[in-house]
Amino acid sequence: MSEAALVPPLVARPTIPVEAPRTGDVIARIRANPKYRELRHKRNSLGWSLSLAMMVVYYGYIALIAFNKPFLSQRIGEGVTTLGVPIGMAVIVFTVIITGYYVRRASREFDALTQEILAEEKA
Questions:
Q1: Model confidence, pTM
Q2: What's the pLDDT tens digit per position in 70-96?
Q3: Residues forming a β-bridge with 82
Q4: Which pLDDT band holds residue 121 (cuts at 50, 70, 90)?
Q5: d(C-alpha 58, C-alpha 70), whole Å
Q6: 46: domain range?
Q7: Which of 68, 73, 95, 100 has the greatest CB tally within 10 Å of its CB?
């Protein structure tokens, strides 16, 4: 018996036409919306600003490690902790703070703009 005889024939099913908005039209209208341009500009400028701030802090700390070890190796008080430890912890805390700032601003401002854009599109 051949393989063709084992495979059942495909049954043609009737198709139901569905009117859906064309994706290209929706995307073009959203991209043309001035609020969308405002959202992109604000989000991108904030993202790049915070990225630059993080790179300055992080690479500044790495530069201190590479080029000024005596400064970082100064002991704090009578213990064994050096100045490098709290500065390193400050880098981590700075990261958490700017992440929280971005999330807070995105939740308030960017999400509100996004909802306005979507509401205008649905209308």
A1: 0.71
A2: 999 999 988 899 999 999 999 999 999
A3: 75
A4: confident
A5: 19
A6: 25-122
A7: 95
For residues 30 and 120, give the distance between their C-alpha atoms in angstroms, rounded to a whole number: 9
CB 33, CB 117: distance < 8 Å: yes
CA angle 80, 85, 89 (to 5 degrees): 150
What CA–CA distance (Å, rounded) separates 23 from 28?
A: 9
Q: CA 41, CA 37: separation in Å to the nearest integer?
A: 6
Handedness of CA 33, 27, 46, 109 (dihedral sign): positive
Q: Which residues contact 74 (CB under 8 A, 6 or more apart)?
A: 82, 83
User: If DSSP codes are grouped into helix, strand and coil, which group holds residue 75?
Assistant: strand
Total domains in the chain come to 1
- Is 32 inside a domain boundary? yes
Task: Collapse the DSSP code of 45 into the 3-class scheme (helix H, G, I; strand E, B; otherwise coil) and give the result.
Answer: helix
Q: Give the span between the Cα atoms of 4 and 10, in whole angstroms.
A: 12
The CA angle 87-89-93, to the nearest 5 degrees, is 115
